[in-house]
Amino acid sequence: MQSRLWISGVLLALSVSVQTAAAGPQEDVAAAWQKWATVFAENNPDAMLPFYAKDAVLWGTLSPTVRSDPAAVKAYFVGAFQALPKATVKFGDQLIRVFGNTAVNTGYYTFSYTKDGETKSIPARYSFTYVKDGNDWKIVDHHSSAVPAPPK
């Protein structure tokens, strides 16, 4: 009886460790950008700041300049949410690579917004570079640019 309990305990422990091992850094980074997208749809600049490290750099789709401090990152989102009312973002194909405590997520996304009763969209390409900060992945570098028109 005791050996059966011991074997059951070992099997349960192995089962839990296998389930835990199934989620890794790539899934954690994917969860971070999913949360970023959800909060982005709130159109609240203050809510975006916790995703960025204090020394983060942002070169946004709508910005002619690099933003390199929290006040400038917030200012970018203030302007972006004014320019793109009711903005949402949908991620397309992406490639997440993890290098220890650093991760890079590269791909494309499409911003949608409603202005003057008309829904419009901006397809863009991006790179997010993350650094592990405790249990969180913080963005340290975010570059985004509109997808160029094909050559004629």
Characteristic terms for this protein:
152 residues; Nuclear Transport Factor 2, Chain: A; 5-stranded mixed beta sheet; 5 strands; 40% strand; globular
Describe the structure concisely for a colleague.
By secondary structure, this protein is an alpha+beta fold.
Q: What does this molecule look like?
A:
The protein contains four helices and five strands, in the order αααβαββββ. 19% of the residues are buried. It has helices at 2-22, 25-40, 45-48, 70-83, and strands at residues 52-59, 88-99, 102-115, 118-133, 136-146. β2 and β3 (102-115) form a beta hairpin. With 152 residues, the protein is α+β, with helices and mostly antiparallel strands. A five-stranded mixed β-sheet has the order 1-5-4-3-2.
Indicate the CATH topology: Nuclear Transport Factor 2, Chain: A
**How large, in whole angstroms, is the Cα Rg?**
20 Å
Helix count, per DSSP?
4
The biggest beta sheet is recorded as: 5 strands, mixed
Structurally, how many domains make up the residues? 1
* Side-by-side strand order of the widest sheet: 1-5-4-3-2
Shape designation: globular
**What structural category arises from helix and sheet content?**
alpha+beta
Low-confidence stretches: 4-22
Mean pLDDT: 88
Task: Give the C-level CATH assignment.
Answer: Alpha Beta
Q: In which range does the helix fraction lie?
A: 25-40%
Amount of beta strand: 35-45%
Q: How many DSSP-defined strands?
A: 5
Instruction: Assign the CATH architecture.
Output: Roll
Span between termini: 78 Å
Q: What's the SSE pattern?
A: HHHEHEEEE
